[in-house]
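Reading a protein record of the kind used here takes only a little practice. An example makes this concrete, so a full record is given next.
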Amino acid sequence: MAAEIRFLLDGETVTADASDPTLTVLELLRYKLRRTGTKEGCAEGDCGACTVLLGEAADERVQWRAVNACITFLPMLDGKALRTVESLGGCHPVQREMIDRHGSQCGFCTPGIVMSLVGRCAGALGTEQVPVGDVLAGNLCRCTGYGPILAAGEAVPVAAEEDGETLAQLRALEPAYDNPRTGDELAARLLAEPETRIVAGATDVGLWVTKQHRDLGPTVFIGDIADLRTIEETDAALILGAAVRYSEAREALTRLAPELGELVRRIAGVQVRNAGTIGGNIANGSPIGDTPPALIALGTTLTLRRGDVRRTIPLEDFFLAYGKQDRAPGEFVERITIPRPAAGTRVHVAKLSKRFDSDISGVCGAFVLRIEDGIVAHARIAFGGMAGIPARARGCEAALLGQPWNEATVEAAARALAADYAPLDDLRGSAAYRSTVAGNLLRRIWAGDSEAVSVLHG
């Protein structure tokens, strides 16, 4: 593979050694380019102190997105534009407002906060019509002082940049790293080298390197494969390429079912949503991944590809056991097909975590129900965090189907969850807690219906 990358930094083309494909952009900035304004706080994409902006050509403009430099590997920078806090020159409106409103305290976290707010001002990915508080959910201030910071963000208007010069430079910039550019190229490489590690957004794999110091072995980066980044909305389904990022998918998911959009909002911070992918969240196989429970409940299917051979399976069948998925060597997730809920279907999704923002699920439950003439006509329920894999609650479903939608039925279904799952005790919650809240999530849906009926009846 080519051992270098090329990218734009403040209008200049930079060529950098990428012989170590897991060297991070943060390490490049601080130790090679001496841009020390970008800080390392957590080295796991949680605190936002290392936030930078990446830009790529998109139609007739530069699409900027804030990312965590600490878990972004150098090959993911190839062919893009990079902006750091030094790029602002000290005179950006966000910087002026942060000074005037005393938004900077010790200053360690400030560069990342500033870059997130600059992204919002530029109409960056994941910030469109998003409150300042949500934009900054992935930036932690250790001194606390969010009031002045939020006020500074609110004071600067959003005005998408017209950056014609950068756009022209990006179009002329020839990427140097030997990444596959099409799904066909990816399929051929994985068939020839089936042990190759697939890296999409690196929001989890990045921690294997920065925290566990693991050697990933041969790697391939799929974030720039155009035919894996498609979003197709039909009358029957939403079809996502496996490399579609959370921020890119959110609007389409919201149109499919509003609670899916809200679920995406609860996935980490903007920086992680701008890098992490729906396909990666699935292929990673985590029992506490946020999207699989909801997608399983909706009847999602996966298309897997190995060479020129494709097969389609229900998403629920992809997860076999903890750390084990139904994916052969050299095979990869190509696309995700989410059926559009039938008229009258209700979709409820609940994520429980210790923090509201930027936290991993303790329990994530998804309920897809249809009530016809007071009878439960359809019920698909799935949970994450309740077992070694995200899985259906088949006993709970059976207790609901064909039964009157009333408190007695709901209680019987909630009790049936005990046979569906045997959750573990861990730092995110005890087994007893998980079992209790899983049943309570179903009870909450019924309680909401009961309250609505009471209001209607006066």
